[in-house]
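Person: Show me a sequence?

Helper:
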Amino acid sequence: LVQLVESGGGSVQAGGSLRLSCAASGNTNNLNYWAWFRQAPGKEREGVAAIDTFGTYYSDSVKGRFTISHDVTKTTAYLQMNSLKPEDTGVYYCAAAQRPGGWQLHAGRYPNWGQGTQVTVSS
């Protein structure tokens, strides 16, 4: 069993930056697949960034502004968010997996999820 806890959310003005963290505990062996998703009010959850042993992946809406990374132990993942826009507002969730399979930004690929952290960007 893997537990994920996000932190770093908050309120920021458009153009600002935030850095989200996601710490894993429990059975953290081989957590090679990480992703960040977000859900805005009234919208479906969407994948915004993912990382695995082959590289990083981003949705078009955040490419060039967000950066996903993890520490060398692969027990903490980060999402650096720059040039934030009001449309980036939502609850951000981290997700992790120990096995490959499926599209990197598809929620169904990840069995382990955090509780979410709110990000609010004002204009």
